[in-house]
Structure prediction request, 262 residues.
Amino acid sequence: MLFEEERKRQIADYVRQHGRASVQELSNHFQVSESTVRRDLSDLEEQELLRRTHGGAVAAMQSNSSEPSFVEKEDRFQQQKLDIAKAALSLIREGDTIMLDSGTTTYHLAKLLKNFQRLTVVTNSVMVAQELANEKSIELLLTGGMLRPETQAMVGPFAERAIASVHVDKLFLATNGFDAENGLSTPNLIEAATKNRMIKSADEVILLADHSKFGKVSFSRFGEIEDVTTLITDSLASPTVLQSFEEKGIVIVLAGNGGAVQ
Prediction:
Protein backbone atom coordinates (compact mmCIF):
# COMPACT_ATOMS: atom_id res chain seq x y z
CA MET A 1 0.00 0.00 0.00
CA LEU A 2 1.37 3.41 -0.96
CA PHE A 3 2.13 6.08 1.58
CA GLU A 4 -0.04 9.19 1.25
CA GLU A 5 2.54 11.52 -0.34
CA GLU A 6 3.73 8.83 -2.75
CA ARG A 7 0.12 8.12 -3.75
CA LYS A 8 -0.52 11.81 -4.38
CA ARG A 9 2.61 12.05 -6.53
CA GLN A 10 1.51 9.05 -8.57
CA ILE A 11 -2.00 10.46 -8.95
CA ALA A 12 -0.55 13.74 -10.25
CA ASP A 13 1.65 11.79 -12.68
CA TYR A 14 -1.31 9.67 -13.83
CA VAL A 15 -3.48 12.73 -14.55
CA ARG A 16 -0.61 14.49 -16.32
CA GLN A 17 0.06 11.47 -18.55
CA HIS A 18 -3.59 10.84 -19.40
CA GLY A 19 -4.72 14.46 -19.59
CA ARG A 20 -7.72 13.78 -17.36
CA ALA A 21 -9.12 11.13 -15.01
CA SER A 22 -12.34 10.51 -13.11
CA VAL A 23 -12.54 9.94 -9.36
CA GLN A 24 -13.83 6.41 -9.98
CA GLU A 25 -10.97 5.66 -12.39
CA LEU A 26 -8.37 6.86 -9.88
CA SER A 27 -10.09 4.98 -7.05
CA ASN A 28 -9.93 1.73 -9.01
CA HIS A 29 -6.38 2.27 -10.23
CA PHE A 30 -4.88 3.11 -6.82
CA GLN A 31 -7.19 0.86 -4.78
CA VAL A 32 -8.37 3.58 -2.39
CA SER A 33 -11.80 4.99 -1.62
CA GLU A 34 -13.34 7.74 -3.74
CA SER A 35 -13.41 10.05 -0.70
CA THR A 36 -9.65 9.57 -0.33
CA VAL A 37 -9.17 10.39 -4.02
CA ARG A 38 -11.21 13.57 -3.65
CA ARG A 39 -9.09 14.69 -0.69
CA ASP A 40 -5.91 13.95 -2.63
CA LEU A 41 -7.16 15.88 -5.66
CA SER A 42 -8.02 18.85 -3.47
CA ASP A 43 -4.50 18.85 -1.99
CA LEU A 44 -2.90 18.48 -5.43
CA GLU A 45 -4.97 21.35 -6.76
CA GLU A 46 -3.76 23.53 -3.88
CA GLN A 47 -0.23 22.70 -5.05
CA GLU A 48 -1.26 23.56 -8.63
CA LEU A 49 -0.26 20.09 -9.83
CA LEU A 50 -3.66 19.48 -11.45
CA ARG A 51 -7.08 21.07 -11.76
CA ARG A 52 -10.21 19.52 -10.28
CA THR A 53 -13.32 19.16 -12.40
CA HIS A 54 -16.81 17.85 -11.76
CA GLY A 55 -16.18 14.17 -11.05
CA GLY A 56 -12.43 14.11 -11.50
CA ALA A 57 -9.40 16.14 -12.52
CA VAL A 58 -7.51 17.40 -15.57
CA ALA A 59 -3.83 18.16 -16.05
CA ALA A 60 -2.78 21.62 -14.91
CA MET A 61 -2.46 24.18 -17.66
CA GLN A 62 1.02 25.62 -17.88
CA SER A 63 0.08 29.05 -19.20
CA ASN A 64 -1.89 31.76 -17.46
CA SER A 65 -3.31 32.69 -20.87
CA SER A 66 -5.29 29.44 -20.82
CA GLU A 67 -8.66 29.29 -19.15
CA PRO A 68 -10.64 26.43 -17.58
CA SER A 69 -14.31 26.07 -18.51
CA PHE A 70 -17.17 27.32 -16.34
CA VAL A 71 -17.94 23.75 -15.22
CA GLU A 72 -14.31 23.09 -14.32
CA LYS A 73 -14.07 26.31 -12.30
CA GLU A 74 -17.37 25.70 -10.53
CA ASP A 75 -15.98 22.54 -8.96
CA ARG A 76 -12.90 24.28 -7.55
CA PHE A 77 -12.98 25.50 -3.92
CA GLN A 78 -16.75 25.13 -3.97
CA GLN A 79 -17.31 25.55 -0.23
CA GLN A 80 -15.21 28.71 -0.17
CA LYS A 81 -17.19 30.12 -3.08
CA LEU A 82 -20.48 29.37 -1.32
CA ASP A 83 -19.21 31.12 1.81
CA ILE A 84 -18.11 34.13 -0.23
CA ALA A 85 -21.52 34.32 -1.95
CA LYS A 86 -23.29 34.27 1.43
CA ALA A 87 -21.08 37.09 2.70
CA ALA A 88 -21.77 39.07 -0.49
CA LEU A 89 -25.50 38.66 0.03
CA SER A 90 -25.27 40.58 3.31
CA LEU A 91 -24.10 43.67 1.39
CA ILE A 92 -27.21 43.83 -0.81
CA ARG A 93 -30.24 45.88 0.25
CA GLU A 94 -33.85 45.96 -0.97
CA GLY A 95 -34.13 48.36 -3.89
CA ASP A 96 -30.47 48.11 -4.88
CA THR A 97 -29.36 48.11 -8.49
CA ILE A 98 -26.53 45.60 -8.80
CA MET A 99 -24.38 44.15 -11.57
CA LEU A 100 -23.25 40.52 -11.53
CA ASP A 101 -20.18 39.67 -13.55
CA SER A 102 -19.93 36.23 -15.10
CA GLY A 103 -18.23 33.78 -12.76
CA THR A 104 -18.86 30.75 -10.61
CA THR A 105 -19.02 32.68 -7.33
CA THR A 106 -21.37 35.32 -8.77
CA TYR A 107 -23.51 32.43 -10.01
CA HIS A 108 -23.75 31.12 -6.44
CA LEU A 109 -24.70 34.63 -5.33
CA ALA A 110 -27.48 34.77 -7.94
CA LYS A 111 -29.03 31.65 -6.40
CA LEU A 112 -29.35 33.51 -3.08
CA LEU A 113 -31.19 36.56 -4.44
CA LYS A 114 -34.64 35.03 -4.73
CA ASN A 115 -35.99 36.32 -1.41
CA PHE A 116 -35.65 39.97 -2.42
CA GLN A 117 -38.89 41.80 -3.11
CA ARG A 118 -37.35 44.66 -5.09
CA LEU A 119 -34.02 44.33 -6.84
CA THR A 120 -32.55 45.25 -10.22
CA VAL A 121 -29.84 42.95 -11.59
CA VAL A 122 -27.71 43.72 -14.63
CA THR A 123 -25.61 40.81 -15.86
CA ASN A 124 -23.51 39.54 -18.74
CA SER A 125 -23.73 35.96 -17.43
CA VAL A 126 -25.86 33.40 -19.22
CA MET A 127 -25.85 31.23 -16.08
CA VAL A 128 -27.05 34.09 -13.87
CA ALA A 129 -29.72 34.99 -16.42
CA GLN A 130 -31.05 31.44 -16.46
CA GLU A 131 -31.08 31.33 -12.67
CA LEU A 132 -33.08 34.57 -12.28
CA ALA A 133 -35.23 34.44 -15.43
CA ASN A 134 -38.46 33.49 -13.62
CA GLU A 135 -38.07 35.73 -10.54
CA LYS A 136 -40.87 38.30 -10.87
CA SER A 137 -39.56 40.46 -8.02
CA ILE A 138 -36.21 40.92 -9.76
CA GLU A 139 -35.87 43.26 -12.72
CA LEU A 140 -33.32 41.49 -14.90
CA LEU A 141 -31.31 43.30 -17.57
CA LEU A 142 -29.03 41.37 -19.93
CA THR A 143 -26.12 43.09 -21.63
CA GLY A 144 -26.20 41.06 -24.83
CA GLY A 145 -22.95 40.63 -26.70
CA MET A 146 -20.74 37.86 -28.04
CA LEU A 147 -20.98 34.66 -26.01
CA ARG A 148 -17.76 33.10 -24.71
CA PRO A 149 -18.48 29.38 -24.16
CA GLU A 150 -15.54 29.04 -21.75
CA THR A 151 -17.02 31.44 -19.21
CA GLN A 152 -20.66 31.65 -20.35
CA ALA A 153 -20.12 35.43 -20.49
CA MET A 154 -21.53 37.93 -22.98
CA VAL A 155 -18.69 40.25 -23.94
CA GLY A 156 -17.47 42.62 -26.63
CA PRO A 157 -18.68 45.96 -28.06
CA PHE A 158 -22.42 45.19 -27.78
CA ALA A 159 -22.04 44.29 -24.12
CA GLU A 160 -19.82 47.28 -23.41
CA ARG A 161 -22.29 49.73 -24.96
CA ALA A 162 -25.11 48.32 -22.85
CA ILE A 163 -23.02 48.48 -19.67
CA ALA A 164 -21.93 52.05 -20.44
CA SER A 165 -25.59 53.10 -20.65
CA VAL A 166 -26.37 52.14 -17.02
CA HIS A 167 -25.09 53.03 -13.56
CA VAL A 168 -25.33 50.56 -10.68
CA ASP A 169 -24.95 50.80 -6.92
CA LYS A 170 -22.76 47.72 -6.61
CA LEU A 171 -20.76 45.56 -8.98
CA PHE A 172 -19.98 42.01 -7.87
CA LEU A 173 -16.86 41.28 -9.87
CA ALA A 174 -15.02 38.05 -10.72
CA THR A 175 -11.35 37.70 -11.67
CA ASN A 176 -8.75 35.10 -12.60
CA GLY A 177 -5.91 36.96 -10.93
CA PHE A 178 -5.56 39.61 -8.22
CA ASP A 179 -2.11 40.88 -7.38
CA ALA A 180 -0.94 43.79 -5.23
CA GLU A 181 1.36 45.08 -7.98
CA ASN A 182 -0.42 43.99 -11.18
CA GLY A 183 -4.05 44.45 -10.20
CA LEU A 184 -6.91 42.51 -11.79
CA SER A 185 -6.36 40.23 -14.76
CA THR A 186 -8.06 37.60 -16.91
CA PRO A 187 -6.90 35.43 -19.85
CA ASN A 188 -9.09 36.97 -22.57
CA LEU A 189 -8.62 40.50 -23.99
CA ILE A 190 -12.25 40.95 -25.00
CA GLU A 191 -13.58 39.81 -21.64
CA ALA A 192 -11.07 42.09 -19.92
CA ALA A 193 -12.44 45.11 -21.80
CA THR A 194 -15.99 44.22 -20.74
CA LYS A 195 -14.93 43.86 -17.09
CA ASN A 196 -13.18 47.23 -17.23
CA ARG A 197 -16.37 48.83 -18.52
CA MET A 198 -18.30 47.26 -15.62
CA ILE A 199 -15.93 48.85 -13.11
CA LYS A 200 -16.57 52.29 -14.63
CA SER A 201 -20.34 51.85 -14.32
CA ALA A 202 -20.48 51.10 -10.57
CA ASP A 203 -20.38 53.15 -7.38
CA GLU A 204 -18.92 50.22 -5.43
CA VAL A 205 -16.76 47.43 -6.82
CA ILE A 206 -17.01 44.29 -4.68
CA LEU A 207 -14.52 41.63 -5.70
CA LEU A 208 -15.48 38.02 -5.01
CA ALA A 209 -12.23 36.05 -5.04
CA ASP A 210 -11.18 32.90 -3.20
CA HIS A 211 -7.62 32.67 -1.92
CA SER A 212 -6.34 30.83 -5.01
CA LYS A 213 -6.65 34.04 -7.09
CA PHE A 214 -4.15 36.03 -5.03
CA GLY A 215 -0.72 36.62 -6.51
CA LYS A 216 -1.90 35.33 -9.89
CA VAL A 217 -1.27 37.45 -12.99
CA SER A 218 -3.15 36.49 -16.13
CA PHE A 219 -2.70 37.68 -19.72
CA SER A 220 -4.95 40.73 -19.85
CA ARG A 221 -5.10 43.38 -17.15
CA PHE A 222 -8.50 45.02 -16.68
CA GLY A 223 -8.25 47.01 -13.47
CA GLU A 224 -6.05 48.47 -10.77
CA ILE A 225 -6.07 47.24 -7.20
CA GLU A 226 -7.42 50.67 -6.19
CA ASP A 227 -10.52 50.05 -8.31
CA VAL A 228 -11.74 47.53 -5.72
CA THR A 229 -13.86 48.94 -2.90
CA THR A 230 -14.42 45.68 -1.00
CA LEU A 231 -12.76 42.28 -1.24
CA ILE A 232 -14.71 39.23 -0.07
CA THR A 233 -12.51 36.17 0.25
CA ASP A 234 -12.24 32.99 2.28
CA SER A 235 -10.52 32.34 5.59
CA LEU A 236 -7.68 30.43 3.89
CA ALA A 237 -6.29 33.68 2.49
CA SER A 238 -2.84 34.70 3.69
CA PRO A 239 -3.01 37.43 6.39
CA THR A 240 0.11 39.04 4.90
CA VAL A 241 -1.48 39.25 1.45
CA LEU A 242 -4.71 40.62 2.91
CA GLN A 243 -2.76 43.26 4.79
CA SER A 244 -1.16 44.41 1.53
CA PHE A 245 -4.65 44.83 0.04
CA GLU A 246 -5.92 46.60 3.13
CA GLU A 247 -3.04 49.07 2.93
CA LYS A 248 -4.38 50.02 -0.50
CA GLY A 249 -7.67 51.08 1.12
CA ILE A 250 -9.71 47.96 0.37
CA VAL A 251 -12.27 46.79 2.93
CA ILE A 252 -11.64 43.09 3.62
CA VAL A 253 -14.45 40.66 4.43
CA LEU A 254 -13.51 37.11 5.42
CA ALA A 255 -16.23 34.64 4.48
CA GLY A 256 -16.63 31.45 6.48
CA ASN A 257 -15.44 33.38 9.49
CA GLY A 258 -18.69 35.04 10.41
CA GLY A 259 -18.24 37.36 7.44
CA ALA A 260 -16.46 39.73 9.77
CA VAL A 261 -14.81 42.81 8.38
CA GLN A 262 -11.13 42.68 9.27
Q: What stands out?
A: The radius of gyration is 19 Å.
